[in-house]
C-alpha cells in the first residue's frame, strides 16, 4: 500500500510540474519578457531582372541554437522566418543562397520588424548580391 501511494504522489507531481511551467511562461509573456526574445524576418528574393527566385535558401545563423534556422523561397520568391532568441538588441546574420547566384548577407537586428528585399546577382557577373530593408510591409 505504501508503494501505491508513492506512485500516485509521483504521478501527481509529474502533472503539476508542466502546469507550473505553463503558468510561469504565461506570466512572463504577460509581463512582456518573452516578446522581447524573438526575431522575425520576411521578404522576397529576386534576380537582377526583378523576377522572383523560387527555391532559394534563406537562413538565420542563431548563436543560441549553435546552428541555423532555414527556409526556402516560394514560387513568388517570398519567405518567412521566425524564432525565439535571447532578449536584447543585437544582430543575427541573414544569408541567402541560390544555385547560379552570388550569396547575399545582411545583419538583421532583433529589435525591429524585418521586411527585406534580396536581389541576387548571377555567378560570374560584376555586381554583388544585395539585401535591403523594405520600407513597405506586404508584397511588392
Helices and strands in order:
Elements lengths: L1 H29 L7 E10 L9 E6 L4 E6 L5 E7 L6 E7 L6 E6 L4 E7 L9 E4 L7
Parallel strand pairs: 1-7
Antiparallel strand pairs: 1-4, 2-3, 2-5, 5-6, 7-8
What do you see in this structure?
The protein is an alpha+beta fold and 140 residues long. Helix content is 21%, strand content 38%. The strands form two sheets. Strands 4-1-7-8 form a four-stranded mixed sheet, with no helix packed on it. It has a four-stranded antiparallel sheet with strand order 3-2-5-6, with no helix packed on it. The chain has one helix spanning 2-30; strands at residues 38-47, 57-62, 67-72, 78-84, 91-97, 104-109, 114-120, 130-133. The chain folds into two domains: 1-34; 38-133, Carboxypeptidase-like, regulatory domain (Immunoglobulin-like). The chain is built from one helix and eight strands. The radius of gyration is 22 Å and the shape is elongated.
Amino acid at each position: 500500500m505504501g508503494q501505491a501511494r508513492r506512485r500516485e504522489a509521483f504521478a501527481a507531481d509529474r502533472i503539476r510540474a508542466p502546469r507550473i511551467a505553463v503558468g510561469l511562461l504565461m506570466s512572463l509573456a504577460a509581463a512582456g519578457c518573452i516578446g522581447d526574445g524573438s526575431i522575425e524576418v520576411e521578404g522576397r528574393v529576386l534576380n537582377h531582372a526583378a523576377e522572383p527566385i523560387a527555391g532559394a535558401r534563406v537562413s538565420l545563423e542563431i548563436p543560441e541554437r549553435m546552428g541555423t534556422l532555414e527556409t526556402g523561397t516560394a514560387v513568388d520568391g517570398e519567405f518567412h522566418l521566425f524564432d525565439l532568441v535571447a532578449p536584447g538588441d543585437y544582430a543575427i546574420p541573414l544569408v541567402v543562397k541560390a544555385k547560379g547566384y552570388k550569396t547575399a548577407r545582411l545583419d538583421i537586428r532583433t529589435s525591429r520588424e524585418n521586411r527585406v528585399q534580396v536581389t541576387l546577382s548571377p555567378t560570374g557577373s560584376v555586381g554583388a548580391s544585395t539585401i535591403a530593408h523594405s520600407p513597405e510591409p506586404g508584397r511588392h
